Structure formats: C-alpha cells, structure tokens
Amino acid sequence: PGLVHSTRQDTMSAPGPGLGRGPKQRDSKMRIRAFPMSMDEKYVNDIWQLLKNAIQEIQKKNNSGLSFEELYRNAYNMVLHKQGERLYTGLKEVVREHLVEKVRVDVVQSLHNNFLEALNIAWADHQTAMVMIRDILMYMDRVYVQQAHVGNVYDMGLILFRDEVVRSDPVREHLTATLLSMVACERKGEIVDRGAVKSACQMLMVLGVDEANHRSVYESDFERTFLKETAEFYQMESQRLLAENSASVYVLKVDVRIKEEAERAHHYLDPSTEEPVTRVVEQELISKHLHTVVEMENSGVVHMLKHERLGDLACTYTLFGRVKDGLQAIIACMSKHLREVGLAEVKEDATEAAAGGKNAITFIQSLLDLRDKYGRFLKEAFQGDVMFSRAIASDFEFFVNQNSKSPEYLSLYIDNKLKKGPQSVIVCLFAAMLLLAMLMSILIVKSERELLILHMSSVAVSLPGCACIMNGFICGLCLLVGRARC
Fold it and tell me: Which of 305, 286, 302 is nearest to 241 (CA)?
C-alpha cells in the first residue's frame, strides 16, 4: 500500500531539420503515496472487538483456533495509527473483568475446599494467558508502553492479579492463615503439601513486581506474621524443652530445630527467609536462656567439665557461638569452676601448714594434670579458641599466685624426677616446661622468678650428670627474667 505505478505519455520535442515527427513514447515513474495516519472509527472498533474476543478466548483456554499472526498485525495497525492508549486501557479492563468475575469467584468458592490448590492453578493459568497476550501485543510493548511510561503487558497482568484476587477480601487473610497453619502442622510432625506452599510463596515474591523492594508483597502478606508466630511458638517450645531435658539434650534439640527451620525456608518458603527465621529461633531458644542452660544443675557446663563430656561441651560451644555473648557465658561458668578447683589444689589446710607446706611432688603434679585436662578441653571441645585459652591462663595465674611457694615446689618437683635417673630427664623437663612457661608469665613479682632460678641452680649443682641439660634449662629461665647468666 502506498506504492502506485502511474503511466504518463509525453510528446517528444520538435525534430531537427530533415527529420519527420517521431512517434510518441511512454515514460513510466513510481510515486510513493503517504500511509494514512488515521483510521476510520468503525474500523478501529472492529479491530479492537476482534482482539478483545481473542483475549477472552485465551483466558478461557480456547486459543487453538486463533491466528496469532493475524492478531499481531491488527494490534500493530492500532498502535501504528496512534490507537495504543485505547488498546492498552481496553486490555486492562478485559483482564480486570475476567479476574473479578471469574477467577476471584472461583477462588473464594474454594476457601474451605482445596483453597491453596485452586489459587495456585488460577495463578498458573493467568501467567500462561498473559504470556500469550503479551506475544500478540509485542509491538505495543515496544512502542506505546515505552512512550507512555506505563507498565508492560505482562507486569500489568500480574499487578491486576495481585490487587483483584490475592489481596481481595477474604482471599488475602485466608491465604496468610493457610500458609501459617501448614507450617505449624509440619512443626508438629504432620505431613503437608510442600509443593503447594512453595508455589504460593513464589507467587507472593513475583507479585512485588512494581515495588522498589520486590519482596514487599511476600513480607507484608506472609513473612512478618510468620516470624511473629515463629517467635511465639519457640517461646513456648523453649519452656517445654527446658522442663523436660538436661542441658546436653536441650542443646541437641535446639540444634535440630534450627536446622529444621533453615531447611524449611530453603525448600518451600523463600530462601531469603532462612536468615531472619534462624535469628528468631536463636533468640528464643539460645539467647534468652544462656545462663539457664549453662548453669543447669547436674547437667550444665560444670557437670560436663567434671565428667569430661567433650562431645557435649563441643556441641554447646558450637551452638552458643551462634549468638552474641554465648561463648562469654560458657567462659564465665568455666572460669568460676576452674578457679574453685585450682584454689582447692594450691591452698594449704591446717595440717599441711603445720607440716611446713604441701607435698611438692603432689602439688606440681596436680597442677600439671589440671593443665592437661583443660588443654584437652581447649583443643577438642573449644576448637582452640583464643578467648578460652586466655581465660584458662588467667585462671591458672589467679590460683597459682595464691601460694607463694609455687616456684620452690616446681624446682623440688624437677629435682625429684631427675634423681630417679637420667632416662626420665627429657620426659620430666617436657612436662615441667608446660607449667613453667605459665609460671614464668604469671609470677609477676621478680623476686619470685629469682627464687625459682635459685632453686633450679641448686638442683643443677646436686646433679652433675645432668649439668648440661639443666644449665640450658636455667639459661632459658634467665632469659625470661631478663638477665644474663655466665
């Protein structure tokens, strides 16, 4: 259209002398006719009616007999002739009418009979229909939608489904209640349709298409209430678990609950819910009961330390490490117990005082055994945590300094071991060094360090066969004290 071939006959100019008049010749030229920029109103109405009928057939799933190529051309012509606004507003009304008069009615009727299944089917059908409609109106999306700064065809359909179906009364409230009820049932051990819950949650995520925060619909219509009810559930659950279980069993069950909630969020809620729901569970089951669990009689941290329950200590360390001040609660309890045990080891009773002090061998060996025990706790239960290491060192410093004879006892201990034979020298020194390294860092008073060196020098003199090893040992002490030895 617009290209017309026109034939025009022209007479040649007068002939020159000696020539007769020549015959007439045909001159053919192509002229371009301007494309009409307006359409007859009746023609526009006919095209729109044809498109409207096609859209309604798509919504009814009767699209097999439609010619999508012809429909595309008609939509193209409307936009080309400046009828994009009419096509867009007309489409919006057709989609809204279908959602209000058909889809919403069907969903409401299913409120008490397979509601979630009916809503998910309606949502899937609507998405499929909007994809087909978008394909027909692709030219409008590319031209009119961009010029008019309105939402594209597919997004417009999603927004209408959200406003006219999902957020209509009573669908919105019933959807939230249904999802929460299914989660609650699963927490009690019942089997629920995870696929239906997942589809509904995915729908809510998609329906935030026109918001700056695409999670806004999911958050306001489900997640906020879900997190609130989760907190209430675990508030009661924590009381029940504490009343029925020991500390070690409580820790194990809390760990299971946290993993269940994370798995639930990951598999059929939106994965972005995993972090906030985990924080809620940690707050209700751990943070609010730190001291209750740690100090639980006959099963808390002190019980675990006394009975060397390394596995239980490791589980408690890992779980409490998830929350603020969790590890500090364990450290405080451990330090209090360690200081009590250490003081009992170093303090002299009346009988020992009358006898001139404690038995040096027993005194040092008990400290070495205690150091080995807590070294094992540090390595196998507390993952070598620096905070725990510092706390243990500080506790040893506290109770070792309560007995001013500690340096003397150490030198006597080494003296006794070395007198048993040279074969025990290396083993003896290695064991003593574990405690010695600590003593040299915690014996703040220089005179106490000097006293330790003095005692060790006397040991070296009395054991000439071990002089080489002992002199090297004493030189190390001198370096720690900060003086040279000739």
Answer: 286
